[in-house]
Amino acid sequence: MGRPKTNEREDIRSLVLEKAKALFLKEGYASITIRKIARAIGYTPATIYLYFQSKAEILYELHNEGFRLLYEYKMKIGEAGTSGAMERLRNGGKVYIDFALENPDYYELMFNMPEPRNFMNMHRKGAAEDYAMRSYEFLRQSVQRCKDEGYFKDVDVDTAAFTFWSVVHGMVALIIRKRVPYPQAPTRQLAHEAIEFFGRLMTMERFVSDTRNSLKVIEG
Amino acid sequence: MGRPKTNEREDIRSLVLEKAKALFLKEGYASITIRKIARAIGYTPATIYLYFQSKAEILYELHNEGFRLLYEYKMKIGEAGTSGAMERLRNGGKVYIDFALENPDYYELMFNMPEPRNFMNMHRKGAAEDYAMRSYEFLRQSVQRCKDEGYFKDVDVDTAAFTFWSVVHGMVALIIRKRVPYPQAPTRQLAHEAIEFFGRLMTMERFVSDTRNSLKVIEG
DNA sequence: CTATTAAATAAACAGTGTTTATTAAACTCG
DNA sequence: CGAGTTTAATAAACACTGTTTATTTAATAG
Q1: How many Å does it take to go from CA A85 to C1' C16?
Q2: Is A110 domain-assigned?
Q3: Which end of chain A has a smaller Cβ tally under 10 Å, C or N?
Q4: For an interface test with B, which of A179, A203, A215 has the most B Cβ atoms less than 10 Å from its Cβ?
Q5: A56, A51, A33: which is closest to A118 by C-alpha?
Q6: Is A115 at the interface with chain B, CB within 8 A?
Q7: Domain of B27, in residue numbers
């Protein structure tokens, strides 16, 4: 008890975050307790409450870290030389799926917790960087490029972005949470095939001026 | 204490389920405790454990009830005279969204809990009716009809069904869990627009024989 | 009218997230 | 230097949680 040996102020915070991350990813959020985290870093539960207001705040911090990681995944696409906007969008979908299936626990942290945006206002200074937002902006930009190339003529950019995000999110959510009552559980391969299928649907759309009206098509 | 006044055996079970459902739907699963349920029906916590092995089993029972309800929603489509398979599929998507947004807590129960299929084996006799499965079969059938009418030529029925389910599940999941970082939160209207958009993509697909190859299209 | 059966319970167990009063080490300053 | 202040860390408690146990009590059977 008492004060410790000249600990550099305020990096117990990252100590907690690191350990909590490791524990969450290994045993899942629900089964990890404040006491376990405290024991793992050699402090008492009460100490953690000097640096975080609640277990939920630790979660939010990691939630944002998850989106930062996703953002990095997506950044890889920008580097690889892709030919068209649509291909870029499709690759974005695949990268998203890869991220989610390679980091399912992170994904759970990011999408399976009570609204984290409720905290943000209270305890963080300027909300620092909201990677969830940046991630969405990235998608929005990709969709806008598609529109510039003639796709998605009769739908606004947010609706299209929302649709596309829903597809990939829905896929990984169903897979990760094992909610698909298949004989054999769906795999990443199925998801990739589905994205290919979906991508073909979208690619096709460019050839049609206004899909709400009747149209003539010659098969080739 | 002691034995009660000639209670018909085994319908405390449904008493618990009814009350738990009402409480879950009003205050959310997490914040409802066994003690609260017990108090609400005028029994003690231990009594509940005579009829359910765990809180999770109560959840599974309601989970299945949720899928039964969804199944009923979907059955309404069969009645309404729809012209084509594709319209039927699109309507199915809208009904699915309506169900989810009208019963968000049910939807949480159904998709946001640890795998419920793990219980099933142990405690229920013949698993009775698995409405999750039946619901999927319904979708699969709708997709098959689309294939019969010439859609989805170069994709197998399960991949197409998975894709379609992912779209609607993704949409409602993002909306319900408020994970869309829009200025204004997305509404049911946005979801319906997105489904329309997606539906148009699919409708279009019929006119193309093999979408993997190049094609000629004359705009009309 | 006892003996048995079984429904319901009280009370405990082992945990949880969180709060409070207290300790003890480090720093400040007269 | 030594007293006073600040502050990191804690021990211990609080009010809960899901679940289990031994016990009571009422209805039924012989």
Answers
A1: 50
A2: yes
A3: N
A4: A179
A5: A56
A6: yes
A7: 7-52
